[in-house]
# Entry
Amino acid sequence: MAIRSVSIQGFRSVRNICLPLSQLNIISGPNGSGKSNLYKALRLLHEAASGRLSAAIAEEGGMQKVMWAGGQRYGDLKKAHKRMILSAEMEHYEYQLEIGFPEPLISLFALDPLVKKEALWLSGYQRRPASMLMERLNQAAFLKNADGERMAYPASLTQEDSLFGQLSDPHLYPEVSQVREAMKGWRFYHEFSGSARSAMRTPQVGIRSPVLAHDGANLAAAFETLRERGQTETLFAVLEQAFPNSHFYVEELGGRFQMMMKREGILRALESAEFSDGTLRFLCLAVALLSPRPPKFMALNEPENSLHPDLLPALAMLIAEASRYTQLWVTSHSLALAEMIKGYCAVSHFQLDQQAGESIAVQLA
# Structure
């Protein structure tokens, strides 16, 4: 279920941005332009579908930290300080989530994110009432059931989370459930910690892992799963381009898996604890992008971080190859990386900048 467009209002530096998306999308710009804010806003939709809206916003510092904090000059958006609106139009459906503060402020939990409105439509019908599959206002909701009948949701909803996170008997509302599962299946990769205590650097219990964890903790198991089930030829071709005369493999130690590397000129194999941060990060990106169970949508936030410029050509090839199976969203500082990717396939490229504290997006030719 590809995403046709995303619309974000009132999130951090994003006052109002709508981006039409293609199969491979690159969002570039200088530090502080709002690239990560767009990425995090999109991830909030995924977290809402997963029942983690409140927790995800708390991890970002709470509502007071994620709401638009720009000036007062926009008379048409006076409510922007009180409401955040996130929308995604997919192939057949359009979803919108409106979040705000409690009113009146009578609780110590006055900064909890509260879902004010939530709606799901069939796309292409200009949000007409007849195309509405779900309509929620505060704690009450109406959904269309499997027979196409508009029904009041029988339970009172917790206002701190999306209806998706509270949906019981999903078989009664198949289209609503389908959209929820699609959004839960989106994958996001931002940081792969290379600290000395990182799970990537120590042996971990190995179980088949067709999906790399968001933090790369199951790297060795995911690498071995990919080697046995996935695009082995592509994987080792990319690794050979990135790390010439090197060979990566997984060593099994009493049920625990550990990444290893043999390198020309070094007499012994290196353990993952000895890998550079850049090597670990590139391995994570390769395993994530070549997953034997590719997602419909994946977002990468600044994948070039910690990578030497010599690794960018291999990364560009990797991203282009993955876009054959997965719709990609890539935020990046590197215009060089963007140009390399364009050498392989068509790209929608958006350049971000800030004007008076507001992120502005321009689509490049």
Q: What stands out?
A: The first strand starts at residue 3 and ends at 11. Residues 73-80 have pLDDT under 50 and may be disordered. Residues 200 and 217 are 5 Å apart (CA to CA). The chain is about 25% helix and 30% strand.
